[in-house]
Design brief:
Blueprint: H1 17-21, E1 32-36, E2 45-50, E3 53-59, E4 65-69, E5 83-85, E6 88-90, E7 97-98, E8 104-106, E9 123-124, E10 126-129, E11 132-135, E12 161-169, H2 173-181, E13 195-206, E14 209-218, H3 224-227, E15 237-243, E16 246-251, E17 255-265, E18 268-277, H4 291-326, H5 337-360
Antiparallel strand pairs: 1-11, 2-3, 3-4, 4-9, 5-6, 6-7, 7-8, 10-11, 12-18, 13-14, 14-15, 15-16, 16-17, 17-18
Helix pairs in contact: 2-4, 2-5
Bound molecules: FE2/S2 (inorganic) cluster and fe (ii) ion.
Fe (ii) ion is lined by residues 179, 185, 189, 313.
């Protein structure tokens, strides 16, 4: 196909499902994982982004996290360039200081006879769960209605050993959602063999969930195969779900993962994976790895097996993004029917958001 000179269409210009899904955003009225809890120390501020919206995320000296719109009301500098002052954030330029409700509370320079400016920047609800920091970038009145997914295996005294990983890939979030649930790409992982001979046995869309199942051989790689305890786990099938805007998998109720995407912009996505296990065995034996040892085993397995495996997906989706930008008008050849459902769901949720936004917009005022 000839390389196109123009750029891919926007959501409103898109002419087919692929162009729509590759330009869709994610509905902001959900909780999104944005950073690890341990990555932000008291007194530290970082910039995080949700679909081109920049947010200053900081931890006050009291240990509490806060998220504010990342701009100073004065001259619009990013507040993430500034400093945490107690529980407030101070802009680096003229030193204006905002409290955790975004209200300007200090202006350390002459006011030239003016009144203290009554200005405010926006704030976002923040929570911490599963070692991740979550932000609610949308309509804050929905923050209590919408929940962070419940993962009972990752909480409490008997919680399973977990491998957290994250990647920032130069790819649209929909490519990552397609990738993690579409097992037709076993060829890419021929070295690690996380799933082979996958046959889609079920796929359906119920509300905002697409559930699917494969009959497949799970974890048959040379090294991973040694650890998978086939006497305790059914490794012949896997259930998966695109539980908008999140994704998970479950192998025999013993090997599970969640995938949380953070759509940064049209071509950048940070993805947080939580893999957790309850049935791995000591190689060449039938002895289950005890829970206390599991943490160490996973620490070793992560850089050897899990990270390299997912890095292959990263290379593929980044190449897919590049391919799409060059050939967005190429004919669509998509064989896996579950992928059609993922894409439809992403498009529908984005349309829902755009429609809501349109209804909320105040009537345009004439500027002439
Ligand atoms: S730009 Fe922030 S204080 Fe002036
Ligand atoms: Fe993969």
């Amino acid at each position: 196909m000839k390389q196109s000179l123009s750029s891919p269409p926007t959501f409103l210009e898109a002419k087919n499902r692929r162009q729509k899904v590759r330009s869709a955003g994610m509905n902001p009225d959900y909780w999104y994982a944005v950073e690890y809890d341990h990555a932000i120390k008291p007194g530290q501020v970082v910039e995080v982004k949700f679909w081109n919206t920049s947010i200053a995320l900081y931890r006050g000296q009291d240990g509490k996290l806060r998220a504010v719109e990342n701009r100073c009301a004065h001259r619009q500098l990013k507040l993430s360039l500034g400093e945490v002052d107690g529980c407030n954030i101070r802009c680096t330029y003229h030193g204006w200081q905002y409290d955790d409700e975004g209200k300007l509370v200090d202006m350390p320079h002459d006011s030239f006879g003016n009144r203290f400016p009554a200005c405010k920047v926006g704030t976002y609800p923040v929570k911490v769960r599963y070692g991740l920091i979550w932000i609610f970038p949308g309509d804050a009145t929905l923050a209590d209605v919408r929940q962070i997914p419940e993962i009972p295996e990752l909480e409490g005294k008997n919680r399973w050993a977990c491998v957290p990983l994250d990647f920032t890939w130069r790819a649209h979030h929909s490519m990552i959602i397609d990738n993690v649930s579409d097992f037709s790409h076993a060829y890419l992982h021929r070295q690690y063999r996380p799933f082979v001979d996958a046959k889609l046995t079920k796929f359906e869309e119920i509300g905002d969930h697409v559930t699917l199942s494969y009959d497949t051989q799970v974890g048959t790689g040379k090294i991973s195969g040694l650890f998978v305890d086939r006497t305790r786990v059914n490794t012949n099938s896997m259930d998966l779900c695109y539980e908008y805007p999140y994704q998970w998998s479950n192998t025999g109720d013993k090997i599970k993962h969640w995938c949380f995407v953070l759509p940064i912009d049209e071509r950048t996505t940070r993805t947080f994976f939580l893999f957790y296990f309850n049935a791995l065995k000591i190689p060449f034996t039938n002895i289950k790895i005890p829970q206390w040892l599991m943490k160490l085993v996973l620490k070793i397995a992560n850089p050897l097996l899990i990270r390299p495996l997912l890095s292959q997906d990263g290379i593929a989706v980044e190449a897919e993004q590049e391919g799409y930008e060059n050939h967005f008008e190429a004919p669509i050849i998509e064989l896996n029917p579950a992928v059609h459902l993922f894409q439809q769901l992403t498009i529908r949720k984005w349309e829902e958001h755009l429609n809501k936004k349109q209804h909320k917009q105040p009537a345009m005022k004439s500027i002439v």
